[in-house]
Amino acid sequence: MAYGTRAAGHRPVVDLADRRALERWRPAEPAVVAEARRLKEAALLDFGLTESVVASWIYAKCPHQIPTTAVETAAVVAGGDGSCPLLYNPEFFVRLGLEGVKFVLFHEARHLVHRHLFADPELRADPVFTLAAEVSINHVALVRLGRTELPQIDGRPTGVDPREIHEDYVADLTAQGLDPLGYDDFVETDMTVFTELRRMSQPPVPAASCVHLTDPGTAGGDQETIDEVVSSSLLNSLLAARRGHPGAERELLDLMDRTDGTSEHASRVWGRLGAGVLRGETPRTRKVDWWQRWLVDVLASKLREGERLVYPKKRGALLAALGHDPMLSRRGPVRDKVLVIAYDTSGSMPDGVVSWLTELVGAIDGVVAHWLSFDAVVMPFRPGERSETGVPPDGVWGKVYGGGGTSFQAVADYVEGRTAVDGDHFEEIPDAVVMLTDGYAPHITPAEPDKWIWLITAGGDDWPDHHTPPMACHRVTTGDR
């Protein structure tokens, strides 16, 4: 995915997957690189605080952010190895300035989201859809970043101007005797732009190819990597929204309004995330897995960011010089959150539920997950391992043999540190405990019931819902998602 335009068919001068070669290729002056890095960091900080939580999460998943003149503008390379480095031309960034850099980085992040939500190969091969994506993404960038025009270099805009495209569309349809849409209706959804451009007698196509929209092998457009990075970023943004981050909620609602229902694939993506809870609607796919939406919401409240105590060196030195006692300040997240997921294996657990929960937990940043199976005893495992617990290599749940009976107390005793498994005690303090069970076992009252989340399979006993004190409890669907 790369910003801007360049001659069609032009290939990268070095292998975009070779980080060392990228850094060595015609390096810019050190002062230029330092200034470009400062602008990039300032832009990403603004995204996280105010302007785009989704973009902030996407770039947080780009472990390598490389200044290089091997690209003319900027590129997010989604490679087949699962990595997703950000490449940026330092001279280009310095010429753009901070506001221009923010626009370019937002544009690139939005392209990844667009590629994730609209993954149909036939659609993406349509040159009119190529232009529609540029129009839609740049319109959103202008609105979200509070701009009235595209960034310019040497008096020329650096991308596709959505208002100019709309003017061409109006002129074309008027000449045909057709009624064109006004600008606001024209850009209402991503697919509206595409549909309206196809009404033109001569739909426009880009005069030059954007690297991010040419052959996927050219700019690292590996779909699996894109799906993994964007899906994880959307989930973390959704969790932030449910924790009360107003910017995250506004951005996700806007993104859903523009894309949900415009394609079957996009609606499935939002449905799997359980994001419909943000606007109180069921997804247009008509498949309602309320327990998924409920669980995302509850987990967000349990895994809320905390604070850690730090010693402010500069302020501490000043206080000491003035004769005051040193003090600690609160700053940042307290630590990785600890999540325990326990599967009741005394009965048949639904593979679709187990798989979805495994993917959900694996996509949440800042969480250390501990997986348990239990019947009358507790048996820790790692998803995907082949062991005595019967969990096969592909991570799909297999039945645990032996034991017999069911004991919720065995889980509570283990996670609360009273009993050991194979001589090892559980020494962490969980922030949340998820129990997937049919509910049929003697009732318990955990030491911290507000941390426990019960998922009750079909036909099970939902006693935790009316226990004293009550605990978070919801029935789950037992079919595959």
TrEMBL record:
Q: Which InterPro entries match?
A: Put_metallopeptidase_dom (IPR025154)
Q: Which domain of life is it from?
A: Bacteria
Looking at the record, the residues that make up the Putative metallopeptidase domain are 42-151
Q: Which Pfam families match?
A: DUF2201_N
Q: PANTHER family from the entry?
A: SLL7028 PROTEIN (PTHR38730:SF1)
Name of this chain's protein = Putative metallopeptidase domain-containing protein
What is the native source organism of this protein?
A: Streptomyces inhibens
